[in-house]
Amino acid sequence: MTASISAIEELRLELPGLDWITDEGRVTRLSQDFSWFSPVLNRQLKDKRADVAVRPRTEDEIRAVVGACARRGVPITLRGSGTGNYGQTTPLAGGVVLDMTGYNAFLWMQPGVARAQAGIRLGELEKQTKPSGQEMRSMPSTYRSATLGGLFGGGFGGVGSINYGPLGAPGNVLGIRAMTIEPEPQVIELRGAEAMRMHHLWGTNGLVLELEIALAPAHPWLETLVTFDSFADALHFADKLANAPGIVKREIAFFAAPISDHLAQLAAHLPKGCHTVLSLVAESCEPAMQQLAEAHAGTVSYRRTAAEVQRSNRTLMEFTWNHTTLHALKVDPTLTYLQSGFVPGRHVEQIIEMEQLLGGEVMMHTEFIRNVAGLMTCSGLQLVRFSTEERLAEIIGIHRARGVHINNPHVNIVEDGKAGGPLPPEVIEMKKRFDPMGLLNPGKLRDWPVKAVPAEV
How do strand 340-341 and strand 52-54 relate by DSSP bridges? Predict the structure, then answer.
């Protein structure tokens, strides 16, 4: 612990009616996310924890905590359900973890748009929208537990991004309501591009209270696994399916061998050593999808209608994106992963090249996605047989040297990871506007150093 106990006690004495969490085990758990996916981050962050956590349930309670912390210079780390992978919710300077999961109301819905509080779980949000024939445009594989605010603060894309691109693409997030971190907190509505200046910054430059998001038309999705003997056949099938304009789809993932061997819960449907394409297509498009599969020597080994998925409460969505990594780590905990972006129009060529260069050491897993310009490409979540940190850096360099973009998931600084360089001036101005004292998640932005709780209040 890095904070003076007196500072934390004063917070609790000032606000005795709040849901304070002081049990050491629970505070430790609330100070962590899935950064253990990375052996590098696991080494760096495993002993970091907050001094206390609090779970507010109303805007007034949030305002009270923020104001009390600001008056004492106590750092605040925001979290939803902690399903991120970069240590976003791990405090580097102790202080208070502000658990937003109790602030979770669904507020309203109209055709094409919905608004909810930041702590709502995404599965619950879709339960509210589905009766109207609408669903989320982008749904992470962790949707059962992930929160809307966590998706905005630390997420990228997910199931549905094949149609609507990453969450940061214009039109996906319409507005947010955010609170400043100061002794007298202010609440401000941000719209459009201005709202996106808080996106994917790990809760370092503003406390998001509500989000207004665009919705997509819902379809009865057919879930399938198609297996192949050939890497090239599987990849080309996935690409043709992704680009087929008449086939309505929500998800396409490509797993090169031996990734399928690591999906133990699906083992009965995946012959050992096979290459696999996982897809969600509209049930009406099944004949066209099957025709494509047959043309590429694929075999449908698993098929579930939307009604069957609903009855079983088991969906292939939970084997996509970084859930693939989670399932693989359960089988082989020595693995780790990369996050990559391929060049639209060259993505198939680049995937084949990287498989030829690193196959066996780096296992190819790609998710088909439209980029912010609307072009079809792949986002990679390759599995890596980890040996040393030096070799991991070499592998990243091999990708970058061949034009494959790497969002490094083994660093804990925003600029070094997803941001990929210095923050834009407008983002820095947003930080100064909403967190003038530098108390939000300190240590995660390069130009804002770690600030521990002062020794005396």
Answer: unpaired
Task: Reduce the DSSP state of residue 324 to 3 states and report it.
Answer: helix
Rounded Cα gap, residues 143 and 275, in angstroms = 26
Cα–Cα distances (Å) from 77 to 99, 158, 241, 297, 409, in that order, read 8, 25, 42, 51, 20
Axis-axis angle for helices 59-72, 5-14 (nearest 10): 150
120/142 Cα distance (integer angstroms):
13
Yes or no: say if 156 and 167 are a contact pair by the CB < 8 Å rule.
yes
Q: Which two tokens stand for residue 243?
A: 């680009």
Sign of CA dihedral 49, 50, 54, 60: negative
How many residues does the structure list for the chain?
457
Measured in whole angstroms, the distance separating CA 52 from the mean position of its chain's CA atoms is 25
Express each pLDDT in 163-173 by its tens digit.
Answer: 999 999 999 99
Banded pLDDT at 457 (limits 50, 70, 90): very low
pLDDT of residue 236: 98
Rounded-to-integer distance, Cα 75 and Cα 70, Å: 8
CB 193 within 8 A of CB 170: yes
* CA-to-CA separations, 149 to 57, 178, 443, in angstroms, rounded: 14, 11, 20
- Determine the pLDDT at residue 4: 47
Report the C-alpha gap between 233 and 236 in whole angstroms.
5
pLDDT digits (tens, 9 = 90+) for 303-348: 999 999 999 999 999 999 999 999 999 999 999 999 999 999 999 9
- Strands (E) in 10-147, as ranges, are 20-21, 52-54, 76-79, 96-99, 106-110, 113-117, 134-136
- d(C-alpha 351, C-alpha 60), whole Å: 50
What is the distance between the alpha carbons of residues 206 and 318, in angstroms, rounded to a whole number? 30
Specify whether the backbone of 192 is left (phi greater than 0), alpha (psi in -120 to 50) or beta. left
